[in-house]
Amino acid sequence: MATTSAPHDPTAANPTIIGNTLEADDHDDAADSALGDESDAGSATTSLASSIMRYRQENGRTYHAYKDGVYIFPNDERESDRLDLQHHLFLLTFHGKLFLAPINENPLHILDVGTGTGIWALDVADEYPGASVVGIDLSPTQPKFFVIDDIEDAWTFSPNKFDFIHHRMMVGSFLDWPKYFTQCYDHLIPGGWIEMQDIHYPIKCDDDSLPDDAPIKRWSDLMMEASAKIGRPMHIAHRYRDMLKDAGFVDIQEVHYKWPTNTWPKGKPEKELGAWTLQNLLDGLHGFTIGLLTRALGWTVQEVEVFLIGVRQDAHNRRIHSYWPIHVVYARKPEAKKPVES
Q1: Please, which residues have CB within 8 angstroms of residue 157's CB and are 6 or more apart in sequence?
Q2: N or C: which end of the chain has fewer CB within 10 A?
Q3: How far apart are CA 304 and CA 242, in angstroms?
Q4: DSSP, residue by residue, 203-239
Q5: Closest Cα partner for 265 from 23, 87, 76?
Q6: Contact 327, 256 (CB under 8 A)
Q7: Residue 287 CB contacts under 8 Å (≥ 6 apart), including other chains
Q8: What are the pLDDT digits (tens) for 15-69?
């Protein structure tokens, strides 16, 4: 995996960087001696209105009650544990780094959008003790000093405030991405950075080992169909670069990674990445699916549960050499132009 510094010429063409490659292990059914047992990877505001603090229950899961229905995934303990696991997955991908953008060494204000459990924000606060780190989310699952609010609304933060605005796994979260990126631009200091770390649907495979009728492929397609139907598409990360450019950002860099669906690739690091990716999917599969398919596509709970049996089987199948594309896009707000002396 590789990282890169932003180019000095903001008008230069910036090709996409390939962060990692995968090669299938010849021993499809063998135990992963290079890795060990796959199961090892498993498992503010001062006062808030009671309506914000309440959760809504649906199909055995809990969801945010504030701005009910805006975010399509649950916020219960199962999901919180998965988010913390996913944080480790990103650390593996970035070789211990929390982000790729070359922010200044002494940032004063950092915003973590969709902070979830707050684990990234807490880690970045440790790394930059001089910075004021704010996490914002719709759900009160994070530490009490973070902000519970809808980032799609008009921002209450001061313009030109943040040195860095961080996002992770925000596909399916916004109705109007161009408007959102404009708000980010307006609230970054001149020279400040924005970074998106996101999955990009559909599931991919570089050989012919993923059949067109595979349940996991159909699941991926259904997630795209359902999210598009509610106006919050999950196949949007490939457009981040162009939308950031349209919003006025420069020095745009894009890095692509591959998260193998299980331990099918060769190499211990690749197998470890696959083991954690598999656990992340298995832990989140029900939560990812139940709300979208029942609300948007009219499936029954029983239909979803039966369908997911095949998806889980495919996720474990090491003969299927599939992976989840991960796109990291970061960009800079231009420095303020100095006035021309007369």
Answers
A1: 111, 187
A2: C
A3: 35
A4: -EESSS-S-TT-HHHHHHHHHHHHHHHTT--SS-GGG
A5: 23
A6: yes
A7: 61, 73, 74, 76, 78, 79, 82
A8: 788 888 898 887 665 555 455 443 443 333 333 344 434 443 544 544 444 444 4
- For residue 172, the one-letter residue type is G
Q: What is the DSSP string of 266-316?
A: SSHHHHHHHHHHHHHHHHHHHHHHHHHHHHHS---HHHHHHHHHHHHHHHH
Instruction: Give me the residue label for tokens 């095949």.
Output: 310
Q: How many CB atoms lie within 10 A of CB 37?
A: 10
With 0-12 / 13-18 / 19 or more C-beta atoms within 10 angstroms meaning exposed / middle / buried, residue 26 is: exposed
Instruction: Say if residue 118 is exposed, middle or buried (CB neighbours under 10 Å; 0-12, 13-18, 19+).
Output: buried
* pLDDT tens, residue by residue, 219-237: 999 999 999 999 999 999 9
Q: For strands 204-205 and 322-332, give the pairing.
A: antiparallel
What is the distance between the alpha carbons of residues 8 and 15, in angstroms, rounded to a whole number? Answer: 14
Q: Tell me the backbone φ, ψ of residue 223, rounded to 5 degrees.
A: -65, -40
